[in-house]
Each structure stands twice: as C-alpha cells, then as structure tokens.
Amino acid sequence: MIRMRWQQFCAAVAVAGVTTQCHAAQPYTKDGCFPVRGELSAWNGTPSLRITADNQTYGIVPSGAHPVPEAITKTVDFDHSLIGRFTVCRLGQAKPGGMTYVWVEHATNLETVPAP
After folding, report:
1. Residue 12: in which H helix or E strand, if any?
2. Closest CA to 21 of 33, 32, 31, 6
3. What residues contact residue 110 under an 8 Å CB cut-off, 6+ apart?
4. Core-most of 8, 13, 17, 84, by most CB within 10 Å?
5. Is the peptide bond before 47 cis (omega within 30 degrees of 0)?
6. Exposed, middle or buried by CB within 10 Å (0-12, 13-18, 19+), for 86?
7. Stated pTM of the model
C-alpha cells in the first residue's frame, strides 16, 4: 500500500513538471532496499554520513545489525567524499524533499573525490 501511494506521488510530481528521484523508477528489492547513485560525504550534525542524490538527502544511521561498510568508513572524512552506487534500506517513512534515514546494504563503483 505504501508503494502504491509513493507511485501515485511520483505520477503527480511528474505531471507537475517537478524533477525528483522516485523509487518507482528505482525498484525495491524484496527486502525494501533500493539503489541510489550519488555522493556520500561527512557533515556536521546527525547523522554525520549522508548521501545526496537528485535533490534528495539520505542520512546514514548505522546500527549493530547494519554497520556502515568498511570501504566507506576507511575513506570518507571531512576532506574526502565517495561517488558511487549505494544500495540503501529505508528506516521509517520516506520524506520527499527532506532527509530520509537509511542504512547502507552495500556500495559499488566507488570513486574518491575531494569533499565539497
């Protein structure tokens, strides 16, 4: 049901001519995770690791069951960011236009770049 409402939201936004990253275009996996291509960087505040992609911000919330992948923690700091493809799993409701809290399932095609 949530997925149906999200698809309806995506359709309404498309009709209005607003560009957004809708998960209807990026299908969920069976466990509710979805791919995101963007830049992962360190920020002041909580959560300190965030992915920005298509005007959407994903705050990475690690937990004991879902730690941040080692490839990310070894590379990202206030001087270095990563650009790549991340499979993220949403924690709670999506917040179009706001920060959505996620955990990172895995990351591929990573490229280290200077932080903005």
Report:
1. helix 2-16
2. 6
3. 71, 75, 82, 83, 84
4. 84
5. yes
6. buried
7. 0.70
Question: Is 87 exposed, middle or buried (CB count within 10 Å of its CB: 0-12, 13-18, 19+)?
Answer: middle
* DSSP letter (8 states) at residue 79: S
Distance set, CA 61 to CA 9, 19, 66, 108 (Å): 25, 26, 9, 19
**Tens-digit pLDDT profile for residues 62-115:** 877 888 988 899 999 999 999 999 999 988 877 777 899 999 998 999 999 998
- Residue carrying structure tokens 């959505």: 100
Tokens of 64: 């004991």
**Two tokens, residue 39:** 């830049």
Q: Which of 96, 107, 89 has its CA nearest to residue 40?
A: 107
10 Å CB burial of residue 79 (0-12, 13-18, 19+) is exposed
